[in-house]
Request: fold
Amino acid sequence: MKPFLYRAAALAALGWALAAPPAWACSFDQAPQARAESCNRLLARSINFGNMLEHAREGLAGPMLRDEFITLSAQAGFTAIRLPIRWDARAFLKPPYTISTEFFERVDGVIRLAQAQGLAVILDMHHYAGMMLEPQTERERFLALWRQVAEHYRDAPATVMFELLNEPHRELTRARWNEALAAVLPVVRESNPHRTLIIGGGDWNAADALADLRLPRDDRNIIATFHYYEPMAVTHQGAEWVSGAGDWVGTTWRGTAADRAKLRADFDRVQAWARAERRPIFLGEFGVYSRADEATRIAWTTAVRREAEARGFSWAYWELASSFGVLEPLTLTWRRPLLEALLPPAPVSPAPPGTYPGYRDETVTQR
Ligand code: BGC
Reply:
C-alpha cells in the first residue's frame, strides 16, 4: 500500500465515511476554503526540519536528515514537518533549469516516511538567494523550478502542501513579491489545481507585511503564513548571521505584562487581517537561538505558542536539531523543557471547528 493511503485506511477502519470527509480531514474531496482550513489544522503543531535540505549539500551547515528525526517527531506528538528546501541549489543554472533526479528521490523518501508516520509535509522553497538579490533576472528560473516541483508532486496526497517562497526580502520587495506571486500561482495551479498552498508576505514574512500581500480572492485554497521572532534582541542574541547580535547576549524575556501585551497586540493584528480576508493562519517559524538562557527560551516559546493556539493559528517551531533545536541530533534525545514548552505533557485537544471565525463557508460575500 502506498504510504499516503495509510491515513485513509486507518480512518476507514475506524468507520469514518470517507465520502463525507470530517472537517479536519485535509482531503481533495473538500471545497477549497474547507480544505485550506482543515489542512491547516493538520499543521497545528509542526516542526521545521531546518538546516538539513536548505543548503547546497545536505550536512553542510547542519545535521543530515536522519529517518529517526521523522519517527521521533511523530512519536513526540508533532503533527507535521515543514521541510525547508533549497531547490535552486539542486538545479541547473541555465534553461531548462533541470532539478537533479537524485535530489527529487531524496525528498520523495522523506515525504514517504513522514506520511507513513501520519505527518503532513510542507515543501518550502527556502534560501532562494537569487530571488532576493535579482528578482527580475531570476523570475524565469523561479517559475521553472516551481513548474518542475509542482509536476513532480501533482499526485501527492492533500496532506503534502507547497509553500511558495520563504521570507521574501531585500530586492524582492513587497510589491515585487506580489508580481512574482501573480506569475508563479498559475504555474503551480496548472498541475495542482486542488493543492493547498502556503504564502506569506514580504520583509521576511513579517506579520505586518500580510496587509500588503495580494492573494487572488477567488483562490480559497491558500493558508497565509507569517514568522515571529520579536524581540530580535531576545530570539537572535548571539546569532552569527545577524549584525550586532553579539551585543544582545544576556537579554532575557520573562513575560512581563508589557512583554505579553506586545505579543498579543502583534498577534491580534494578524488575526484581524485573517478575519477580514478569510484566510487560515500558519505561524511558520518562531524560536529562540541557543545562546539565550534556558528560562528565556522556555518562557518566550511557551507564550508565543499559547497566543498562536488561542487564535487558532497553526504553528511550526524553528527548528528540530540545529542551533535553535529541540532535539540533540547525535544522541537523539529531546531537550525536555523546550519540547514540553511546545507539546505540554497534558493532552491538548485539537483546535475545534469554527476556531477560525469568519471562515465558515464558501458563500460568505467577498469584500
Ligand atoms: C533561516 C535560518 C535562520 C532562521 C532564524 C530561517 O528562515 O532560514 O537560517 O536560522 O530563519 O533566523
